[in-house]
């Protein structure tokens, strides 16, 4: 697909989190790393004691998103992805796009998805896991359309017009790509 794109504190989790509460624990022994885990109905985020309140809030958001993405990977496997593709094909293409296989792959770091029409195979990058459902659906619809029209010509883009959130999903993916190009402050990647 082209580049279409601390003190202890209890805070409410962001939208989409399964946890009821967030507890932030500061540690003087922790110098640079941040970690998080689920403990019953609460999420515990461990951070260095020296972090500011603003850094704390940023890291809580990052870690909740990271946990949600990890949980999404466990809950949304290849079988569910194939079922989703069948549903989308029926909804947007009258069932005409019939993939033989649909699966997550970890070797696509520059593409969101790929399709081999001759084999009927669709592969989605693991980087999509944890993204909003409409984004995953867009990439699936994009790859399903390749089963009907192999290239990216006018007929291909006309097929994608059936999916109502195409532009929004493309914008989301473009934003992800742009954010990945930004310099990251020290420690932002667990350094």
TrEMBL record:
<dbReference type="InterPro" id="IPR053136">
    <property type="entry name" value="UTP_pyrophosphatase-like"/>
</dbReference>
<feature type="domain" description="YgjP-like metallopeptidase">
    <location>
        <begin position="88"/>
        <end position="173"/>
    </location>
</feature>
<protein>
    <submittedName>
        <fullName>M48 family metallopeptidase</fullName>
    </submittedName>
</protein>
<feature type="region of interest" description="Disordered">
    <location>
        <begin position="1"/>
        <end position="34"/>
    </location>
</feature>
<dbReference type="InterPro" id="IPR002725">
    <property type="entry name" value="YgjP-like_metallopeptidase"/>
</dbReference>
<dbReference type="Pfam" id="PF01863">
    <property type="entry name" value="YgjP-like"/>
</dbReference>
